[in-house]
Each structure stands twice: as structure tokens, then as C-alpha cells.
Design a protein that fits this description.
Oligomer: single chain
Largest sheet: 8 strands, mixed
CATH architecture of the largest domain: 3-Layer(bba) Sandwich
CATH class of the largest domain: Alpha Beta
CATH superfamily of the largest domain: FAD/NAD(P)-binding domain
Strand order of the largest sheet: 3-5-4-12-13-14-11-15
Distance between the termini: 52 Å
Number of domains: 3
Order of helices and strands: EHEEEEHEEEEEEHEEEHEEHHHHHHH
Bound molecules: flavin-adenine dinucleotide
Radius of gyration: 22 Å
Helix content: 25-40%
Number of helices: 11
Amino acid sequence: MGPRDGHRAELTAAGTRADLLVAGGGPAGWSAARACARRGLDVVLVDPRPDRAWRQTYGTWCHELPRGTGPDALPDEVVAAHDVGWAIATRTHRLEDEYAVLDTGALQRALYDDGVRVLRGKVVAAGPEGAVLADGTEVPAGLVADATGAVQALTAHRRTGRRAEQTAVGVVVDEGTAARVTGGRLVFMDWRPLHGLPGWPTFLYAVPLGGGRVLLEETSLARRPGLPLPELADRLRRRLRAAGLHDAEVPLDDPARVEHVRFPVDTPDHRSPAGVVALGAAAPFVHPATGFSVARSLRAATRLADALATRPDDHAPVDAAGRVARARDAVGGTRARVVHGMRRRGLDVLLRMPPAEVPEFFEGFFSLPARPRRAYLGSCGTSGSDRSDDDVAESVRAMMSVFARLTPRLRGHLIAGTLCGPGEAQRP
Ligand SMILES: Cc1cc2nc3c(=O)[nH]c(=O)nc-3n(C[C@H](O)[C@H](O)[C@H](O)COP(=O)(O)OP(=O)(O)OC[C@H]3O[C@@H](n4cnc5c(N)ncnc54)[C@H](O)[C@@H]3O)c2cc1C
């Protein structure tokens, strides 16, 4: 039974004490809930709209997706399309890695698990004894996972001020039409300003969706605040016109064929309350420089479930504090926070860079060999490990490799951005 069938087993009352309560039914929440339920844990998932169909187009590098045949393996149909990725900065680069675009509906169905008890509600507080919902219901649980996404509903210290956001506007066209823009390639980033407008740099992201459809998306990687969506739509239309497409071939007024993207990428290091472990966009899983988090959430779910289902070597009973410590360590301990901090600095550099020089920066980046490039993107697979997100040495090496490839002027921007911290949007 899938989440869109409308027959989810919903709890009408709090029920018995669960091993794990997951707040939030997005990819991070469901992957953790499913992985834990499949290892025999009693799991409750709480979401205000548990039947909500996910709509985002999720993409990731193929090697980042969980592989194998274990309990968390995903069926093949979760990948809607995949192809080798291309990037264009000041030159064209064929990347060694295949990029996958997920079938979001298939992913949602695959992550659903009948063994998870689903409760419609909004978690407003949590601690070592469980969670409290907005209607006052208390749900006892041995551990609470905050997977409430960018709202970070359970984070103790909220960030104030303007967020750095990724924004994008995409349109779905048939592959023949798209090929006139992309040459039939999967384009991870095309930084050429073919829209003809000055100002904040944006790039084209062009990926197959399966079924002969292609998403063409004008994207602002990060800006504080996010570049307005109407501006992105205008750029997309101009870019596609410049490639020879007529407006009638670009259905930007058809909501069913348009994707709007807006989410923060400067997720701060979270301060979860006692008894709570944060996951997904509610934790600092969102890569500050790419916005990716879904594949990382899928991998973290396996580590969390293994940590909770396995007894420590000394067979000593695990108290509540010990359980939280193990859970936090499994999904990202101190080293992951260091790597995240370094990537936040990378975001600051990007936000401070003069717009005209951003393509040159990415030229240096895409000239990197596969290994440091993967390490910077946060991809696993460089050493067969799934833990590149907490590999401090690999991340330092990747950043040094980028630095070595830059012009002296760009190096100056990089140093200034690193020393000066968060930048505001640079205006032309
Ligand atoms: C259009 C778009 C495209 C994106 N594309 C990609 C991509 O290609 N690759 C990638 O890796 N990332 C992408 N992202 C970024 C990010 O990975 C996604 O936002 C992803 O959905 C985050 O998953 P999540 O489960 O952490 O949070 P969400 O998907 O945001 O889920 C959070 C859930 O928590 C629920 N919730 C909120 N408050 C409460 C509460 N108080 N109590 C209980 N439940 C609550 C919400 O209802 C929601 O269901 C994209 C984002 C957008 C918006």
C-alpha cells in the first residue's frame, strides 16, 4: 500500500511508547522510519499532512544512492533516468560520474512501510520522554528524530535574519525540444549567460525525467535572499529563446509543467533539545554549496537504524542519553560538523564573489580530478566509504585543490570570503 492510496494506518491516539518517534514525513523522516521499522523497532511518524504527495524533482549522483540488497535497498524504479553529467563554465566538461533523477512518486512509495505507525499532527516540543503535539497529545518515545525539514521545528536556537536560499524555475519539455538547447546532454550546470542579462549569475540545469521529458531549470545556486522567481522565469525564457525555442514551446504558464524551487542552504549547526536527533534538512544535511540532502538522508537512515538496533559490544544497557549520543554519532558526529562548517565557509566565499567571476570559479572547480570534486560535492564513493560527509582530511584536500586551480584574483576573493564570513547579495 502506498502513501497515495489514502489508506494509511493512522493512529487515533498516542498508543504505547514507541522506540522512535519521527517528526516529519519527508524523505529524511520516511527513510529513517522505514529503516528502523525494518530492524524491528516500534516507530511512530508524525506529520501534519501524512498523505501529502512529494512534488520536488530530486536528483543526485548515482554513486550517492544507497546500493546493495540490505533492508534499505531501493527498487530500480526509484531512478527515473540517469546519464553522464556535463558542466559548462568557461569551457565544457564531461564529468566522469552518472547523475540520477529520481521518480519522486516511486521514491515516496518505496520509503513507505506498513510497519510504521502514522499519526497526523504537528510536533511542538520533544525531549527524552517523547513528543508533544499541537493538540496537547503526548506521544511517549525512547528517542525523537526531528525530520521537520527547513522549518527545523524542534531546533532550540533558531536562526534569525535573512537566509541564503537556492531558488530556481524549471519547465518540463519533450526531449526533442530540450535537445535543441542541450545537444541531448544531461547538463548539471551551464554557467553561460545566454539569457543576456547582467547581474547575479545563474545557470541552466537540464535533466531527463524519463518518459521522453526533460526539465530545463534556471537556477541561482545561493543568494541572500534568494533571487526572485519571476527574475529566474524571465532568464529561462530568454535563454531558451536564444537557443531558438519559441515561447509556445516553453509552457511557463502551465503549473503542471513548471517547478518552483526555494529553500535555505545556510542551515546552521543545529541545537536539538535533549533526547532529539536531527535528520535531513532539519539537521545540517543540506550541502551549503549545492543544496543537496536527499541522498545523504537515505544513507544516514541506514546508519541510524543500525545504531539503534544493535546493542553495544559490552552488552551494557543503553540509557536515554546513551541512545541519543549513539544516534547523533551515527548520523553525523563532530567530524561531520567540522566538514559542514568548512562548506558553510565555501558558501560565504560564493556569496561574496563578484558575479562576473563566478563562472571562472566553477571552471577551476570542474577542472578538478573526480576524487576531490566528489569530496567537495559531498559525494561518497571516493574510498568506497559512505561517510565522505565527515571526512575532514578529504574535504581539506578538495578545497586546497580548488584553490590551486584559481587565478590570483579569485584566490584573493576566496581568502576574503573565508575571513569575512557571511556575505550579503552582491548587486551589479
Ligand atoms: C523544488 C525543490 C527541489 C529540490 N531538489 C533537490 C535535489 O534535486 N536533490 C536534493 O538532494 N535536494 C533537493 N532539494 C532540497 C531538499 O533536499 C529537499 O527540500 C528535501 O525535501 C528535504 O527533505 P526532508 O525530509 O529533510 O524535509 P522535507 O521534505 O521538507 O519534509 C519535512 C516534513 O516535515 C513536516 N513537518 C514540518 N513541521 C512539522 C512539525 N512541527 N511536526 C511534524 N511534522 C512537521 C512537513 O509537513 C514535511 O512533510 C530540493 C528542494 C526543493 C524545494
